Inverse folding.
């Protein structure tokens, strides 16, 4: 049984079937990418899986448990963590503190204990600091730990956001355009980081426009067009699929989203 299982998922916006009858699974250690032309329904699908939208149809399961329509914090408690297309970093906090905030759900204790700084709350903070430091080393930001987040380059901020999502120790990580706005070097760093996280056994679901990156790192690709799944499979198979080529060619002019 896949760790994340999506079956017959769908939602409408007014009369528009934004996503319809989409299903797939993600196993631990796999990198599954969702691709498709602009407006295909990728972000909407992501929002339904991560609890931002309640699906009108279908089912989402995590490790066999039905989690359809659960709120993001309930999903986080069950091991689903996500990053956002528009960075959600606290710019005025230090790099280390940003990762520590990602740990709060995991290390949740009593507010009263924290207010009075009890030994238990001090222990939790120390533990969060240790975990956060380890994660910063993992994403190559250990030397920047005490800097204000606003001082980081864009690519480094993207890696910081991944470190913060990892602070929850997720079993599945949803990455929304992790390489958007990054240059080639930054994209490659993120590329390696994602592969490394997958290798540690975390399941990864990715929405990404950088087709070269998608083809390089995906174990499996799901292709959407106008809300429907039109193809899925290994990168080599999907990139040769006539339906996929047609969907992209149909919007290729000026969109810059050709299959790489
Ligand atoms: N909140 C909303 N209300 C109404 N329509 C929406 C809403 N969100 C998305 N849509 C519509 O649903 C369809 C799917 O949009 P979505 O943003 O999921 O596509 P996408 O594949 O992520 O596109 P892009 O590649 O441009 O990010 C589009 O036709 C879009 O206009």
């Amino acid at each position: 049984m896949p760790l994340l299982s999506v079956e017959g998922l769908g939602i409408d916006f007014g009369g528009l079937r934004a996503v319809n009858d989409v299903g797939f699974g993600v196993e631990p250690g796999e990198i599954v990418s969702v691709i498709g032309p602009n407006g295909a329904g990728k972000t909407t699908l992501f929002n339904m899986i991560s609890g931002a939208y309640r699906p009108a149809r279908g089912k989402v399961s995590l490790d066999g448990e039905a989690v359809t329509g659960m709120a993001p914090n309930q999903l986080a408690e069950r091991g689903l963590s996500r990053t956002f297309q528009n960075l959600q970093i606290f710019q005025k906090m230090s790099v280390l503190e940003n990762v520590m905030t990602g740990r709060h759900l995991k290390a949740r204790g009593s507010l009263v204990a924290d207010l009075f700084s009890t030994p238990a709350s001090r222990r939790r903070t120390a533990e969060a600091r240790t975990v956060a430091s380890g994660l910063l080393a993992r994403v190559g930001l250990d030397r920047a730990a005490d800097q204000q987040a606003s001082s980081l380059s864009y690519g480094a901020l993207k890696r910081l956001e991944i470190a913060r999502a990892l602070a929850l120790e997720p079993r599945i990580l949803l990455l929304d355009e992790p390489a958007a706005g990054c240059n080639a070097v930054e994209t490659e760093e993120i590329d390696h980081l994602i592969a490394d996280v997958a290798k540690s056994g975390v399941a990864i679901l990715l929405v990404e426009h950088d087709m070269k990156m998608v083809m390089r790192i995906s174990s499996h690709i799901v292709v959407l067009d106008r809300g429907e799944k039109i193809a899925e499979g290994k990168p080599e198979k999907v990139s040769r699929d006539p339906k996929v080529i047609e969907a992209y060619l149909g919007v290729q002019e000026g969109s810059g989203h050709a299959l790489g």
Remarks:
- Residues 13, 16, 18, 36, 38-44 surround adenosine-5'-triphosphate (CB under 6 Å).
- The mean pLDDT is 90.
